[in-house]
């Protein structure tokens, strides 16, 4: 996009850190436009008022700092967990699921303030640029998008710092050198990647982990916790009803104490390269185990197996940035239909890095002790019926075997 190409006002996703402060000033000088800053509180655990003060110092008049924690968990995390979504068998999509909400709010602010463009701080190598921009265009097909990392001429960290100093942007001492790794956090997880973590053969040092204690240092006694569900969503911990964000925060603390939710993963990015990341998802790991536990007794086999077939596709859509696509919404409708009777309580045992289901109960349970018992089942199941069932299912296999015999194979 050429400079000044019809850009009068732009909404910037702004953290208040050095990089987005440089982006803010770069937008002002390159596009000669008004900048609106938007900072989302997604439970990243950082004080956000410094972002307001930094934006004011840089001359910003319209500053938005929005607490989106409840919306994040209620409308994005919980729908995803109804699907038991896991990318490439391991990743709980903590970064991926935050991007569509940030983009949604940016577009809303653009419409509120009369802005004609939005901007983000994602680099040209990662997935986030795709997630942000697919979401922007899905919500406003005519919005203009500025991606500074793809446009500017800065070649190094020293170039960025020189620009900051020339425009009186404070550069903290710890930001003058290359950071050992980068982090992204929200209420669901924290991710660490880059620099010292780039060699997948080297174990990540313990200081990388910020949300969990080492499993070896966790208590020697297990902690039992009960998670209550209604229609597929967690609503209570140990009998206490909590809001979505408060519930996830409670699970995060339990997971932290017991070293639960660590993941060292080399994943396939949508843009084509492989990337090594260290993820911590303490509460989400417990929640996933609990949700699968309640589904074990409330979902019919056919529905449960179909969900498991659909899940990788659903997870990939979220990872690749297609939250607002019709196919994700179609899958969500099917998933939500499956959750109508997913209500009850799951008991888990938390111990040194593990979260294991040890009990589950539901008023809608399909589990029948009368059917599975080895004792007299009073006619509930006639074992002789299995003979015909097996013979019918074996019919095609026997036919194939006879053909092999005829052909001498």
Notes on the structure:
This protein has 409 residues and is α/β, with parallel strands linked by helices. It folds into 3 domains: 9-80 and 93-178, HUPs (Rossmann fold, 3-Layer(aba) Sandwich); 183-299 and 341-361, Argininosuccinate synthetase, chain A, domain 2 (Alpha-Beta Complex); 370-407. It contains 13 helices and 14 strands. The chain has helices at 18-31, 49-57, 69-82, 99-113, 128-139, 148-151, 157-166, 244-257, 282-298, 301-320, 326-338, 369-372, 385-407; strands at 9-13, 34-41, 63-67, 117-119, 144-146, 182-185, 190-193, 223-230, 233-237, 240-241, 262-268, 274-280, 344-351, 354-361. The strands form 3 sheets. The chain has a 5-stranded parallel beta sheet with strand order 3-2-1-4-5, sandwiched between helices. Strands 10-9-8-13-14 form a 5-stranded antiparallel beta sheet. The chain has a 4-stranded antiparallel beta sheet with strand order 6-7-12-11, with no helix packed on it. α2 links the parallel β2 (34-41) and β3 (63-67). α4 packs across α5 and α10 (301-320) runs antiparallel to α11 (326-338). It is elongated. The model has no long low-confidence stretch (mean pLDDT 94).
In what range is the share of β-strand residues?
15-25%
- Could you give me the name of the CATH homologous superfamily of the largest domain? HUPs
How many structural domains in the coordinates?
3
CATH architecture field of the largest domain: 3-Layer(aba) Sandwich
Quote the average pLDDT.
94
Outline type: elongated
Low-confidence stretches: none
Our Rg estimate from Cα atoms comes to 26 Å
**Strand order of the main beta sheet, please?**
3-2-1-4-5
């Amino acid at each position: 996009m050429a400079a000044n190409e019809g850009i009068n006002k732009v909404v910037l996703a702004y953290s208040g850190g050095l990089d987005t402060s440089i982006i803010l000033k770069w937008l002002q000088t390159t596009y000669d436009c008004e900048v609106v800053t938007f900072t989302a509180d997604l439970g990243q655990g950082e004080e956000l008022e410094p972002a307001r003060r930094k934006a004011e110092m840089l001359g910003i008049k319209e500053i938005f700092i929005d607490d989106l924690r409840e919306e994040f968990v209620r409308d994005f995390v919980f729908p995803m967990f109804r699907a038991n979504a896991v990318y490439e068998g391991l990743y709980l999509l903590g970064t991926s699921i935050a991007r569509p909400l940030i983009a949604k709010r940016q577009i809303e602010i653009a419409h509120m303030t009369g802005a004609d463009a939005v901007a983000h701080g994602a680099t040209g190598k990662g997935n986030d640029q795709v997630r942000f921009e697919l979401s922007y265009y899905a919500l406003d097909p005519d919005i203009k998008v500025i991606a500074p990392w793809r446009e500017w001429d800065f070649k190094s960290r020293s170039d960025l710092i020189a620009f900051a100093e020339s425009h009186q942007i404070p550069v903290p001492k710890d930001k003058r050198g290359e950071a050992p790794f980068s982090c992204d956090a929200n209420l669901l997880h924290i991710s660490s990647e880059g620099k010292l973590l780039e060699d997948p053969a080297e174990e990540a040092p313990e200081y990388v982990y910020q949300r969990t204690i080492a499993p070896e240092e966790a208590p020697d006694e297990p902690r039992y916790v009960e998670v209550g569900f209604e229609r597929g969503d967690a609503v209570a911990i140990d009998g206490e009803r909590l809001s979505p964000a408060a519930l996830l925060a409670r699970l995060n603390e339990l997971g932290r104490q017991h070293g639960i939710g660590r993941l060292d993963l080399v994943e396939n990015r949508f843009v084509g390269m492989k990337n090594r990341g260290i993820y911590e998802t303490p509460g989400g790991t417990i929640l996933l185990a609990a949700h699968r536990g309640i589904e074990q007794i409330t979902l019919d086999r056919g529905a449960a197996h179909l969900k498991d077939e659909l899940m990788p596709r659903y997870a990939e859509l979220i990872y690749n940035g297609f939250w607002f696509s019709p196919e994700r919404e179609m899958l969500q409708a099917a998933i939500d239909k499956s959750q109508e009777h997913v209500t009850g309580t799951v008991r888990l045992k938390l111990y040194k890095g593990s979260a294991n289901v040890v009990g589950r109960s539901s008023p809608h349970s399909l589990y029948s002790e009368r059917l599975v018992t080895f004792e007299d089942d009073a006619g509930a199941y006639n074992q002789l019926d299995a003979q015909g069932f097996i013979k019918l299912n074996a019919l095609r296999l026997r036919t194939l075997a006879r053909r092999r015999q005829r052909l001498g194979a």
